[in-house]
Sequence to fold (397 residues):
Amino acid sequence: MDYKDFFAEKLEALRAEGNYREFIEISRQAGQFPLATQMKAPSSKSVVVWCSNDYLGMGQMRAVCEAMMKGIDRTDTCLDADAEANHLAADLAEHHQKEDAVLFTSGYLSNYEVLKTLGRQLPDCVILSDERNHASMIEGIRASGAKKRIWRHNDVADLESHLSRLAPNQAKIIAFESVYSMDGDVAPIPEICDVAERFGALTYVDEVHAVGMYGNHGAGIAEQLNCMDRLDIIEGTLAKAYGIVGGYVTASRTICEFIRQHVPDNTEVFSLPTGASAAARVSLRHLRWSTYERKRQRQAVRDLRQKLDAAGIPHIENPSHIVPVIVGDPVKCKALTDALLFDYGIYVQPINYPTVPRGTERLRINPGPLHTKDQATELVNALSTLWRQLGLSCQAA
Ligand code: PLP
Fold:
């Protein structure tokens, strides 16, 4: 086989259909988020970032940065089991009102390893997976070798119908997200818990796009809906609203200990470098007690949606902070984001297939507490111009 030709042809096909992922080089400007510097030619320039997963700008908070630097000074940069990581795990357990927590080096790994382990270890297990679940869950379920049932997105009646066809004593896990990252819609968690309890299923919820931002203390949608105690396993990340890196699950002591004992890979997956743990603890503590960032984020979302409405630019309604603007064409989606970046100094990543279904290519805009009204006006003005230039359809204002 001619491997070189094979890879080159596949890459060319991706380019031709507009689905080639460009990893642009931008560097955040310290203390100036959402400003970043675009490094590549013709010359470096300042851009406003609208698609960061550092949803609340915590990655630049002075106290968080200092905690990371002090953590490095105290130990080193290495990934090793240490006291700071244990303290962080205890903080996370308390945050979600669970007995225990297990840390991982990323949210991706926490989903992958935990679902893989539980699906393998529970005898004759069936995992019921929402059809829009993130790749990390899908891959973990696949790797577990457990039987899988896919239920229609956020459709509790469909979930119930799958459950009703399984033997009452069969091991079952319902795996779903609280805020779905691409549409920004929210799962009906209490209703899912109702059917889980009725059919004796374990519940596993991914709160990656919710922690830090929802609930009175930022513990997520389950906190907001007052149902954290009804969920068996809550998974989250430190790499989005908390602005650091790492993932975790919180659950009962028994489940967490079972995970620690049975995850087959290197046990160093259960830790973080001291600096990251120390910074995450400061970020977590801050967002537990400060509502300022959450309120400002909501205002910024409302403001942007109003401006998009006034300009007739279609966006998916949802109750979250994620504003999906549907373009519906991969080539136009890429052209739009290129023009935003090169002509207007605005960075929004194009979201194309396979991340979203073909025909629903989009911009995924994340307004945060540090975006100004003027920046939102500039974004919508630029979008309006480009929308017309590319012949995209508007909705009545
Ligand atoms: N779960 C969901 C729903 C995600 O969207 C992502 C990443 O974007 C992850 C898990 C993985 O999180 P992390 O970035 O911490 O690896």
Summary: The longest strand covers residues 172-177. The longest helix spans residues 292-311. Residues 58 and 243 are 5 Å apart (CA to CA). Residues 106-108, 111, 134, 136, 177, 181, 206, 208-209, 237, 239, 247 surround pyridoxal-5'-phosphate (CB under 6 Å).
